[in-house]
Amino acid sequence: MTVLVPAWSPTTRLLLLLLLSSELSGTQDCSFQLSPISSDFAVKIRELSDYLLQDYPVTVASNLQDEELCGALWRLVLAQRWMERLKAVAGSKMRGLLERVNTEIHFVTKCAFQPPRSCLRFVQTNISRFLQETSEQLVALKPWITRRNFSRCLELQCQPDSSTLPPPQSSGALEATAPTAPPSPLLFLLLLPTGLLLLAAAWCPHWQRTRQRIPRAREQVPPVPSPQDLLLVEH
After folding, report:
1. Is residue 180 a part of any domain in this protein?
2. What dihedral do alpha carbons 125, 129, 133, 136 form, nearest 10°?
């Protein structure tokens, strides 16, 4: 029996390999044509909150960047992972309530989010506050979930570490390092006549005293004798 194999070109084979690798690694597109958030998600979260111990401890990230929409999506990614952990240790009744809430945020698994970065810091909170924040993130995303592409949100971003930021300079240091402005030419022209007048006023009395001293000095100098007078004196 002869098996016919299609004669694919190298370009066709390359395109098939790229398509297969993208399917295996998850799509980089993160958009939703239909809203995955139901209209009664708040009721489901409230029912779960009423059934749980209010002070049951969970953790939330404390240093996610304050992105307008990515931030809400990132917090739902972390919340969904907590839901899976809680389902693994809950009883049958609790597991059913957790699954109803998890269904509301399970849509985040459709996007190929990168693993959480090591820079994330987590703080402890109680389950009541955790569920309240989850409800707030769904409220923030619901109007935009079908109108935005979230592909740029696939990597959770941390806030810059304060230890790596340059220390703020004080106002005194800024004033000390600020360059002094050169004097304005207009100011020099305005002050030039005043300077000349002051110089003239200081020079005039000196000049007048000098003129008065010159004649007096001339009067005190004896007249120079002529040669004839010197001859008469010798004889």
Report:
1. no
2. -170
